[in-house]
Amino acid sequence: MPVYTLPELPYDYSALEPNISARIMELHHSKHHAAYVAGANAALEQMEEARASNSFGTINKLEKDLAFHLGGHINHSIFWTNLSPDSSGRPGAELASAIDEFFGSFDAFKAHFSAASLGIQGSGWGILSWDPVGARLIVQQLFDQQANTAQGTVPLLQLDMWEHAFYLDYQNVKADYVAAFWKIVNWDNVATRFAAARDNSASLLLLS
0.85 exceeded by the pTM? Predict the structure, then answer.
C-alpha cells in the first residue's frame, strides 16, 4: 500500500527570513509536519489490520486520527508552496480580478483574511478557498487540522495559526506574524491553484 511522505521544501529553511526564521522552518517541517505524515500512515496501517481481522472496535478513533493527521499533512503541503522568498506582494491578472469581485478590493480581502486568522480560538488555519457550488472565493477558519470548513471547498491560500508556526519568532503577538505573512505569499502558486479549482468546477458542472 502506498504511504504518505514528507515533501521537500522548494526553498532553504532560511529563505523566508526575517519573516519566518530558519529555526522555526526546520522544526515546523522536519518535526511537526513529519509527525502528521507518520500519524496518517499509522492510522491507515491500523485500518488495514482492522479490515484483515474484521475487528472494528477502534474504527471511530482511527477515523478521527486519520482526519487529523492527514489534514495536517495536506494543510502543510499547501502552506509551504504558498510561501516564497520572492513574493510579488500582490496577486496578478485573473486572481486579482476575482478577489476584487468577491471581496470588494485586495485591501478588503487582506483585512478579512487577517481578521479571520487572528480570530481563531485555539489552533487552526486561515484559508482562502474556492467554493465550487457557488463558484466564488470565500475565507474560512479551519479549526485544528480538519474542522469547520465546508465540504468540497478547495484551499488556495493557507496561513498556519498554530503556535508552533510563529511562537519562537513572535511569541504571543500574532498580528505581527500575520503582517509578516503577507510579505512572503507566493501569489503565482495561489493563482495556479485558483485556475485549477475553477476549471475543475466547470468540469463537475458538466456531470450534473
Answer: yes
